[in-house]
Amino acid sequence: MQTEESLLTDRPGLLAQPQAAELTAENVVVQFGGLAAISKVSLTVRRGDIFGLIGPNGAGKTTLVNCLTGFQAPTSGRVLLGGDATSGWSPDKFRKQGVARTFQAGRLFKEMTVLENVEVAAVGLGLTRRAAQLRAMALLDWVGLAPQANRIAGTLAYTDERRVGIARALILSPAFILLDEPAAGMSDAECEDLIEWVATIPDRFNCGVLLIEHNMRVIMGVCDRIHVLDGGRSLAEGTPAEIQENPAVMAAYLGMES
Amino acid sequence: MFIRTALRGLITPLLLILGVAVITFLGVLGGDQVQTSLTEMLIRMVVVVGMWIFVGNSGVISFGHVGFMCIGGYAAAWATVDPNWKSIMLTGLPDFLQNGQYPFPYAVIGGAVLAAVVAIVLGAAIMRLSGIAASIATFAFLMIVNSVYSNWDSVTGGTSSIIGIPTVVGPWVAFAFAAGAILLAYAFKSSRFGLMLRATREDEVAAKASAINVFRVRLAAFVLSAGVVGVGGALWAHFLGVLTADSFYLSLSFITLSMLVVGGLGSLTGAVVGVVVVTIVVEVLRALEGGIALGKATLSLPPGSQEIGLGLVLALIMIFRPSGLTRGREFRLPWLQSRAGVVVSNTAPATGE
């Protein structure tokens, strides 16, 4: 009998993936036609860290996440997982190698139950339905949505929807999880609730978190490092304290004068 | 408790099979005409349930499945027709078919296997396309099959029919296969592949991010689906006793697809209900076309009413029940519904770290 803890965080043998310590973008460029969505962006997310990615709308945050998860091939530059080149990997390969993500709009499987939404990712990773259900249930329990397990996902409140999306990405304990504005559209209180919970993920699952979030107060409080994008270029990277004091960031993004 | 759990898993297919059994039983009591329509309906049920395995779970409409029916039907005919007949009609068959004659079960298996093999080759190309492009490609496939089977004289008899196929399929044989198809389809839906495929139907992007290889799960369903439809073709051949390539073309594609849509693409129940409902509508209209005596006057609808009537039914469904008569839900008994969160017990020892 497996314990709940092991159901939550261990990685079954069939996922004998090399658990990479770093997810790295190296001089990544993405061009759509003549338009550069991202130019020469480099960053590294480490296991155990919460890495903030901020920038105004259109800065290229989502495009970068797409590059880091196989949804977008860089025009030039490389994405490395634990030092290995990932070129040509499909999104499902990224997930199998331990890089998971969520989406801005949630993108739940709306006609399926909450349990099936989480279960299916474990099934995609190779588990039987029964084993996947056990793990999905343990995870939903941790998320606090176990009572909703048999509800159709499309009927959930949007705050719960986001949690299911994160649970779906967390199942079988990926090495990295990339959260694309998980709190978009939430009130300040809801946002703080969610991010407080997100902050417990790295320790619990021994993974690295990349977090895109607009609420400055929240992100400054929770991140180990922050990377600022503006117009597809890297503006700055550092600890929250460094970012807060960076004049270029203040001028371009925070809009503060000092 | 165990029995309840087991029942809950199987209740949908068992209820469907029971319903179909009742219809079959009542139909068998009727005359020859009723029995013919009944057998036809049950064979179409095999085909439509087979189509549903792919179309229903993947959400990708296929216009090409009747092509697999054609392939299955001819393969079965090659196996069971008397070699003396074949030496007159078909001269280009491989030796084991040209000079041999095989029993009906072999013919059914042969039909399924040939259809599935063609589906592997075709699917390897088509399943890489996105939904609507894939649908159009399946239509092209239907046209290719029709073209090949209408013109490959030495193997298919070309535009002339293959005759002399043993007519061994009656209502109960067809029922047995329909029941089998229902069980298989439900097992697929409940399987790992079925779950992953339904996720790709809901949101392809999120499915990819959930480690699902969309191409692989679609291809698996496509091949299984083609195999079942191939069985349907074999049954059809051994029901009519005669095969022509043109009978597996647009009108049959239209009627099988409308059965799927009327019942509701989202559920197996929809596929089964759709077959029954559309069959009833078509039979009633066909009877009215033939004329019904009311006292001295004979009421009859003009020829073509069948097609128009079916079109009307389809249009009304699309307007009032866009997700079909069943709204994509499976048939269940309410008192066997599972409660939330019964899947895992919370009594597992929580030993902590």
**Which CATH class of chain A is shown?**
Alpha Beta
Beta-strand segment tally of chain B: 2
Biggest pleated sheet of chain B: 2 strands, antiparallel
Put simply, the count of helices of chain B is 15
Provide the succession of SSEs of chain A: HEEEHEEHEHHHEHHEHEEHH
In angstroms, what is the radius of gyration of chain B?
22 Å
Strand tally of chain A is: 10
Could you say which structural class the secondary elements and strand pairing of chain A correspond to? alpha/beta
Largest interface, Cβ cutoff 8 Å: A-B, 47 and 34 residues
Question: Terminal Cα separation of chain A, in Å?
Answer: 60 Å
Roughly how much helix do the residues of chain A carry, as a percent range?
Answer: 25-40%
Protein name (chain A): ABC transporter ATP-binding protein
Domain ABC transporter (chain A): 23-256
Keywords (chain A): ATP-binding, Nucleotide-binding, Transport
Organism (chain A): Acidisoma cellulosilyticum
Concise overview:
The complex is a heterodimer of chains A (258) and B (353). Chain A is an alpha/beta fold.
Structural topology:
The complex is a heterodimer of chains A (258) and B (353).
Chain A: H1 4-9, E1 22-32, E2 35-46, E3 50-54, H2 61-68, E4 76-81, E5 84-85, H3 91-96, E6 99-101, H4 114-124, H5 129-143, H6 158-170, E7 176-180, H7 188-198, H8 201-205, E8 208-212, H9 216-222, E9 225-230, E10 233-238, H10 240-245, H11 247-254
Parallel strand pairs in A: 3-8, 3-9, 6-7, 7-8
Antiparallel strand pairs in A: 1-2, 1-4, 4-5, 9-10
Helix pairs in contact in A: 4-5, 4-6, 5-6
Chain B: H1 2-29, H2 32-58, H3 65-80, H4 83-89, H5 95-98, H6 104-126, H7 131-151, H8 153-156, H9 171-190, H10 192-202, H11 204-209, H12 214-240, H13 250-263, H14 268-290, E1 292-294, E2 297-299, H15 305-320
Antiparallel strand pairs in B: 1-2
Helix pairs in contact in B: 1-2, 1-9, 2-9, 2-12, 2-13, 2-14, 3-6, 3-7, 3-12, 6-12, 9-10, 9-12, 10-12, 13-14, 14-15
GO molecular function (chain B): branched-chain amino acid transmembrane transporter activity
Subcellular location (chain B): Cell membrane
Pfam families (chain B): BPD_transp_2
